[in-house]
Amino acid sequence: MTHLNRLLAMLAIAVLAMAATFGTAEASERYGTQKAVYHINGTGGEESKVYLGALRNIQNHLNAVGAENMELRVVLHGNGVNLLGEALANETLQARVVELKGQGVVFNVCNNTLVGRDINPETDLFDVWEDDIVPSGVAELSYLQQQGYTYVKP
Amino acid sequence: MTHLNRLLAMLAIAVLAMAATFGTAEASERYGTQKAVYHINGTGGEESKVYLGALRNIQNHLNAVGAENMELRVVLHGNGVNLLGEALANETLQARVVELKGQGVVFNVCNNTLVGRDINPETDLFDVWEDDIVPSGVAELSYLQQQGYTYVKP
Amino acid sequence: MTHLNRLLAMLAIAVLAMAATFGTAEASERYGTQKAVYHINGTGGEESKVYLGALRNIQNHLNAVGAENMELRVVLHGNGVNLLGEALANETLQARVVELKGQGVVFNVCNNTLVGRDINPETDLFDVWEDDIVPSGVAELSYLQQQGYTYVKP
Q1: Which is nearest to B81 in space by CA: B137, B135, B123, B36?
Q2: Which of A33, B21, B136, C139 could serve as a FRET partner for B116 with CA atoms 20 to 30 Å apart?
């Protein structure tokens, strides 16, 4: 990630935080506070269309509840890890990931998948840090549900 | 929806309510009372085969637990909204929707999808009323789970 | 199931139980004890590749949490019942099922599917016993979630 990308990410964060402050009062009254984990383990299809659809779902979710009222995790395992692989080259996908992170969304990557597929998170995936890696994607899904997270498979 | 259709719907309701009263005692003893939300966001395939399969799952679910022991919601968003679009022309699909509604099943439609795809619920979808429309399908999925609904993705 | 198969199954159980005892201390500290239900209702694809992937997810889940810390159920209905049909002829798939059962995983089969598709569990499916059959796969999914099981759709 270049310095310019980081700067753009921070700008996006600021703009989206402002957007989140206005206009979501009504929706958040209905939905209150929420915790949700999104389970993504499939392929992205042509031009990452499936992944872009899933991230649009997540953005709509944040808009409805208000990012400040949500803890939202995305657990990627199996083919789903390709989301962050394709985000290296697909600028639209990368921008969506950056925007969601700017609103507090955490992307977790399954270590079993990294090891099993010989994926180097530093070079093969977009913006993955040590804390983002979980021992097992599926065990994490159960763990988070036991912590009160609701489950959504987009 | 014509008057004849409404009449047939009410007849179906009456017949199914009677069916629900008999014969489910054993299954409902195992399952007690249940709340479930079905998540449908995919396409229906040839002749709406996928949607018909999902609605068959729901009918089997009601049969096993007893409709009187269940609160069952279907949340439609993205391509899943086409279920009620295709139900306008596909008589079998329409009949299944009517029968399920007659047993208390609520079909919720995502407003984000309606707006994003320029869908008019009154003319483009089968039997959608204002109360059926929710601000966000995915936020509704989390909301319902937080209210004790179990999650099923058919 | 032949006597040789049963013997091999028991050997696998013993070996895997030993494997589970060593090396999972760290992961189980993170994840504690878990209950999970896996929902499988799709087709297995070429050479049962999709089913093998799902069973690999389950094995990884057990490895991360420790089989002794988990109650794990697989609910099969609709096309998902084919997993145990294909396991009759596909030796790799059969071995995976046997190994998972050896670690305490329960495979539940939907009776609605058996009746609706005229499937004889004794002759058409691999190693299904009366206790494995549940009245309704989908009702069982809700039932288990209401008993504290987390939901994973692989």
Answers
A1: B137
A2: A33
Mutation site, B41, B141, B144, B153, interface A, largest A CB count within 10 A: B141
Contacts of B109 (CB under 8 A, 6+ apart): B76, B77, B81, B84, B121, B125, B128, B132, B133, B134, B137
**Chain A residue with minimal CA distance to B38?**
A152
The pLDDT tens digits for C26-52 are 566 889 999 999 999 999 999 999 999
Using CA atoms of A107, A108, A114, A115 in order, give the dihedral in degrees to the nearest 10.
170
Is the Cβ–Cβ distance between C147 and B32 less than 8 Å? no
> What are the tens digits of pLDDT across the range B7-57?
556 655 555 544 444 444 556 688 999 999 999 999 999 999 999 999 999
For CA atoms A74, A113, B153, B36, give the dihedral sign. negative
Cβ C150–A151 below 8 Å, yes or no? yes
Q: Which of C24, C51, C57 to mutate to test the interface with A (most CBs of A within 10 A)?
A: C57
Interchain contact A49–B (C-beta under 8 A)? no
SS3 B140: helix
Q: How do residues B59-114 score in pLDDT, each as one tens digit?
A: 999 999 999 999 999 999 999 999 999 999 999 999 999 999 999 999 999 999 99
Distance CA A101, CA C4 (A): 54
Nearest-CA distance C1 → chain B (Å): 30
**Model ipTM value:** 0.85
Q: Specify the residue for token string 């239900």.
A: C37
Min CA distance, C145 vs chain B (Å)? 6
